[in-house]
Amino acid sequence: MNLATWLDRVAQTGGGAPALLDGSRVVADYAGFRAQAAGLAGVLAARGIVPGDRVGIFASNCPDYLVALYGIWWAGAAAVPVNAKLHGREAAWILQDAGARLTFVTAAQAAALGEVSGVGQVTLGTSDFAAMSGGPAAAMVRRAAGDLAWLFYTSGTTGRPKGVQITHGMLAATSVCYPLDVDPVAPEDAALYAGPMSHGAGIYAPIHVRRGARHLVPASGGYDAGEVLDLAAEAGPVSMFLAPTMVRRLVETARGRGSRGDGIRTVVYGGGPMYRADIEAAVDWFGPKFVQIYGQGECPMAITALSRAEVADRNHPRWRDRLTSVGRAQTLVEVAIGDEAGARLPPGEVGEILVRGAPVMPGYWRNPEATARTLQDGWLRTGDMGRLDADGYLTLVDRSKDVIISGGSNVYPREVEEVLLTHADVAEVSVVGRPSAEWGEEVVAFVVPVAGRAPDPAALDAHCLAQIARFKRPKAYFALEELPKNNYGKVLKTELRRRLEQETT
Fold this sequence. Notes:
By secondary structure, the protein is α/β, with parallel strands linked by helices. The chain has 2 domains: 4-388, 3-Layer(aba) Sandwich (Rossmann fold); 403-504, GMP Synthetase, Chain A, domain 3. Helix content is 34%, strand content 27%. A 9-stranded mixed sheet has the order 2-1-10-9-11-12-13-14-15, with helices on both faces. α2 crosses α6 (127-133), α10 (225-235) crosses α11 (244-257) and α11 crosses α12. The protein is globular, with a radius of gyration of 23 Å. 51% of the residues are buried.
């Protein structure tokens, strides 16, 4: 089934309901949203776009983003949403690798892309795009569950990004899991696109379309915590997907204003490690508004979930362990822990997280070698290390490539980071391994101090030794004003390792 079918159905019976909002201003109801998507599909077909073709979206968040996405689907083509903050040459490589026939852009991305990509461009929010989306409505192209809907390119922090093939069936499965495992959606609700629509925030668009909810894009087109608080108070109830670093900024801004997040119904967080101290602070300030999800591009947003009740619970005897976990398997997947050969490990043992089910990708785009490494015996090998407890709660330990082997013993950086973050002088921290002639690797920590503080390495050592084994404590501490991060708030440990290499050369 073509995912655009959900837009068509909602418009048939609820066409007058507000659909697309620029800030708090309604720019299209559901009938208008459908008409624009169907009109755009007709123009795409007239330009030679046929079912299965790829069409890029290299754009900042804006209401027209969703018109472009649904117009592409209506035409039977596949969208290639590209991170709007990429360099033009990086975006061009993705568009060329995908074989994109056309690209929708916003003004800044048009300038960044220039003539590099060799792909035709149409700028969203212009009269040209309005003319395209105002054309005669085309008939929707039928699609099967296994047909490509979204070609998602991984971050590429360790080399060229890989294209994850996300099908109509995968997005439908993720959408079905959302109200069952994450958060119910009602027509009066609104999805607030605070995070990039090219990633997790956009993946949740279909379920909000299916329920006839509103779609709010901040007028800035980006993430400003103050703007989000203002918009939620004016246009709530809103739900949004935020990376952990964005949650931290939201809490800090709200505290500074004395705001308790009026209008915010749900914050779904994921996409990176959420440290227990940070989520406890968020719940203490805002109340039970938070739900955690764990997913990957290869199984988008749909591996596990930790409910708002579990995130807010302080009465269960193991509430701290559960809060540190990423929850239990979502409805349409199975989760297991495997050793290096893929053999299943019992509860409590650390191994690679394995997933199978309807939201899992069929493979990487034109990369059979990577597909064969990642999909084995029907299971997705995530590359993440974790453990399951007897109740099915999954705790992430680290990426397999980030595990530090010191003197033959495994050290999981996140465990050390969790301890250091409980020190009063530490605002942020990232732990990596440094080559050691004696130990193979040794643990070092990059620390961002709390404003006005200067953490003493001896005090940090004592703090660690009081809570974890001596071999796990960092052998060195490096103070930074900020940690290097990608556009989604994930710490770039590759950059930290590069800094260590430069110090030793």
